Amino acid sequence: MEFTLEDPNGLLLHFPVNPTEVNIRRDKSFETVTIINGGELDVPQGVKVKEIAFSSFFPAEYDASYCKYTPLPDPQTAMNQLNTWMESREPLRLRITGTDVNVLVMLSAHNSSFKGGEPGDVYFDVTFRTWRDYKVRTLAERIGTSGGEARPDIKPVSATYTVKSGDSLWAIAKMNLGSGSRWREIYELNRTLIGDNPDLIQVDQELVMP
């Protein structure tokens, strides 16, 4: 099992020590209304964004008994990267291999701590909120769309795309479709070519685009 975070520019951070547990919180939102002579009534409004949280640490030195890979990231550099991502408005892709967690998220909170007798190690808690893509359209854009005329701000999309070194479906969707969250559309159109793992695309594969 591997825990990774990837930003839209392809910068990848592996968490070197697997957490002992991952907590996923799901909530439903309600609006409470008061009915005259009838008391309060909860009206379901939909599902809130999902929260994913776990704790681990960045070790200063490699130990094969718990480290998943080498070379290890510098603990302080890794924490600074988490700080940078938390301040960013761009979503990250969180992957936990061996599970269904392969989603776009925003890093909403993280805490770090140091322990006596373990110089250089940095312990952390992180919380992610699943990303929901949205687009705000101006009135002019809405009128243009309803009138059947092509919107000038829409980039024409090629019928196919040839995979290059370092590509991922998320990056391809972000670059060509305007949103990385549309990677699954590309995958569904090319599932036979790609196979069961959407992360294993090959250089020079020709993908059919939505």
Give me the secondary-structure topology:
Blueprint: E1 3-6, E2 12-14, E3 22-25, E4 28-35, E5 39-47, E6 51-58, H1 75-87, E7 92-96, E8 102-113, E9 122-130, H2 139-146, E10 160-162, H3 169-177, H4 183-189, H5 191-194, E11 206-208
Antiparallel strand pairs: 1-2, 1-7, 3-6, 4-5, 6-9, 7-8, 8-9, 10-11
In short:
The protein has helices spanning 75-87, 139-146, 169-177, 183-189, 191-194; strands spanning 3-6, 12-14, 22-25, 28-35, 39-47, 51-58, 92-96, 102-113, 122-130, 160-162, 206-208.
Order of helices and strands: EEEEEEHEEEHEHHHE
Architecture of the largest domain, CATH level 2?
Beta Barrel
Termini separation: 32 Å
Provide mean pLDDT, rounded.
81
With strands numbered from the N-terminus, the spatial order across the biggest sheet is 2-1-7-8-9-6-3
What's the number of domains? 2
Would you count the extended β strands for me? Answer: 11
Strand content: 25-35%
Query: What class, by secondary structure content?
Result: alpha+beta
Biggest sheet layout: 7 strands, antiparallel
Question: What is the overall number of helices?
Answer: 5
Helix content estimate:
10-25%
The low-pLDDT segments are: 150-155
According to CATH, what is the class of the largest domain?
Mainly Beta
The coarse silhouette is flat
Radius of gyration: 21 Å
CATH topology value of the largest domain: Elongation Factor Tu (Ef-tu), domain 3
InterPro entries: Bact_Kbp (IPR052196), LysM (IPR018392), LysM_dom_sf (IPR036779)
Organism: Paenibacillus pectinilyticus
Protein name: Terminase
Domain LysM: 159-209
